[in-house]
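Chain A, query sequence.
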Amino acid sequence: MTTMSSAEHTRRDFLYIATGAVGAVGAAAVAWPLVSQMNPDASTVAAGAPIEVDLAPVAEGQVIKVFWRGKPIFITHRTKKEIDDARNVTVASLPDPQSDEQRVKPGKDQWLVLVGICTHLGCIPIAHQGSYDGYFCPCHGSVYDTSGRIRSGPAPTNLPLPPYEFVSDTKIRIG
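Chain A, predicted structure.
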């Protein structure tokens, strides 16, 4: 009678390990679609699911661009000079009269959030350009100030404001 040592691997050990591995792969293959179906549909995200933007890394004077509903959103961390320039304007002299205070959230004057599409023909303006150091649309010459208000050119209205809210001091939710 021969006995086998327990330290020796047998064919049965291999079958146990192989069966366990195939079972684990099968369980993962079943779980993956169940978990991924809980994510929002791509068309839902494209249709305007809210996005959150962390403002902590945005330096003073910097403009970042994010996309929401397929539109560019400009988020500007305005300097004291840019805020003062926007506030020292006679609102009645503007083509589309709107005060700077109406274009920012109370207590968050340094953050300006705009839809970055020119209201003339839908071009994308360039930040920190133009005679008011705000936004300039190179296609047809519309000039916006540091509050995104139209100052000269063919654009009929100010750059639009997307719906947004501050969820913390350094994070906003757009949409």
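The chain is about 20% helix and 25% strand. Helices lie at 11-36, 42-46, 80-87.
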